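I am hoping you can look over what I have pasted underneath with an eye to the fold:
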Amino acid sequence: MPTRVLTPSWPGPRRIAHRGGGRLAPENTLAGIRAGIAHGYRAVEFDVMLTADDVPVLMHDPDFGRTIAGRGSVATTTWDDLSRRDAGGWFSPKFAGERVPRYEDVVRFCQDHGVWMNVEIKPAPGFEARTGRLVGEMTARLFADESRGASWPLFSSFSVEALDQARSAAPHVPRGVLFDALPATGIETAQSLGCISVHASHRKLDRTVIDGLHDAGLSVMAYTVNERPRADQLAQWGVNAICTDRIDLLVP
């Protein structure tokens, strides 16, 4: 069966390192992004939320206990406190002492190394609008210097409110809405937010769903694809991009 022509526009590379380094380094850290680069990846996905004093940082879980030891939460912890915590030791002793990075520092790093970013806005519960707005404002500021030659990132989020606020703050940054499985109103939601793409679990995607999204003028990003046969199948169906933990297996 021939590969479907990719008609909707996708703004970045077609293979993206999940949370920076996939399974090879601690997620949402500069060490993770360096691992992606070392394996040839020039596109990364990572999560951004706010500290108690409104500093955007890379973090997936709102509560401590998995990647950050102890009790507490990102939303109730200041940047000064969070910056001292170990964000790598949970993964392996090799990465002990790796710190939680600020979003601003990660953007500068990726700009300097020619790495395209899928910025997932990951607000702690109750902070959806504020997180979207502040991440949008910071992104607009960080990409104001066109002389750096960096491509605009792409915002994505499960939160409609966060994406809407990010659009207001940075209307020129492209957006994609995240779903586990595409709901009946998924295309309508994406279009109402001015999104260029829908991001969905690869397990819930098939050719019919992908064709329907393309027919609506939307690109499709599938997460988290960790097996080569599945990546090949999705490519045949016309998926525009995949996000993967297996940066060692799937060649970018």
User: Anything to note?
Assistant: The beta strands are 15-17, 43-50, 56-58, 116-121, 154-157, 175-179, 197-201, 219-223, 241-244. The chain has one domain: 15-244. Residues 15-244 form a domain with the TIM Barrel fold (CATH 3.20.20.190). The longest strand covers residues 43-50.
